[in-house]
Amino acid sequence: MQINAELSLIMYEDLLRCRYVEETSLDLFTEGLTPGRMHPYIGEEAVAVGTAAAMKPGDLTVSTHRGGAHLVALKADIVRVFAEYMGRAAGYSSGRGGPMHISVPEIGFLCSNGIVGSGIPIAVGAAMACQRTSPEKVVVCFFGDGAANTGSFHEGLNMAGIWKLPVVFVCENNGYAETLPVGKGIAVQNISSRAAGYGICGVTIDGNDVEAVYTAMAEAIRNAREGAGASLVEAKTYRIGQHFSGESNHYRTESEVQMWMERDPIRLFRERLLERGLAVPGELSKLEEAVRDAVEQAVQAAKDAPFPDPETVLAGLYRDPQTLGLGTP
User: Fold this and answer.
1) According to the model, what pLDDT value does residue 329 have?
2) Which of 292, 244, 277, 205 is nearest to 15 (CA)?
3) Counting CB atoms within 10 angstroms of each CB, which of 147, 227, 273, 288 has the fewest?
4) How far apart are CA 317 and CA 280, in angstroms?
């Protein structure tokens, strides 16, 4: 499906923003400004951007430990994203969640989660609630190929199939479950083939083609919204960067990484825009510069933000110390 010029340029800008935020986040880690490690999404941006473009306001998202780009693609305030990464009070979770545990209800981002596969049952529960009280909403659940081997994956897809829940499961198959090649951990060629066992639709797409992602997700989301039930969309992509910041790439060859860099989703889409005459090189260069400047300004604003007041350490807890019988702090 060919996307119109306006949406194409919007998606290209979103791809750039996701990439620059990810690269800058790694720089922050190197500078010692992030309390925890980063899990870079570099190379996978087309999945986040194509999916977000297919969603409607009010739809819900459940993310993973590699969820920063999902937030950015959903138009989160990148100042607050950077602030959260650096443990600042201006962050979306007041600096308490870090890069892996963020919730932004105002844009439907229910949560990111550091436990592999744990977002799947959360998404199923949210979809059940939507089915009963907000049938116009759809839940999108991201997870990786490693999560497809967890019990929560099979239980979650089974329940979604039984109840025809309005949820789209997006498996970001980036080739590795941490350091384990997908071919050594999964017997089937396509993870999407597992969908048939739960009575839901399954499709495998090129996760480095933002238009292919958008087209597949638009159909899956539309089906879910119209009551046709859940889908499993497997987006085959590649994690160009490390599994986490500071990790060695000893389990991958340079030639393999280079091969996938040739299929960089931003590079591919940029070439496509030029080939179709939807933009000229100078226009795209100005856009790239503008997005980079905006990211640099955002990270500086986040650096200038204060840390949380130690007196607020217990703020936001579900139960206060007195309720737990621990007395007054």
Assistant:
1) 45
2) 292
3) 227
4) 52
Which residues constitute the domain of residue 293? 5-312
Distance CA 276, CA 293 (A): 27
Phi/psi region, residue 120 (left: phi>0; alpha: psi -120 to 50; beta: rest), is alpha
What is the percentage of the chain residues whose pLDDT exceeds 70? 96
Q: How far is CA 60 from CA 85, 107, 204, 223, 253, in A?
A: 22, 8, 22, 16, 38
pTM: 0.93
What one-character DSSP code corresponds to residue 4?
P
Backbone angles phi, psi at 273, to 5 degrees: -60, -40
Q: Using alpha carbons, select from 295, 242, 66 the residue that is nearest to residue 170.
A: 66
Q: What is the pLDDT of residue 179?
A: 87
CATH number of 70's domain: 3.40.50.970
| Strand-pair partners of 231 | 168, 201
Domain count, the chain: 1
Task: Using the structure block, give the residue that is written with the tokens 């990111």.
Answer: 112
Average pLDDT over residues 302-328: 74
What pLDDT shows up at residue 327? Answer: 47
Nearest to 104 by CA among 128, 141, 75: 75
Q: What is the mean pLDDT of the chain?
A: 93
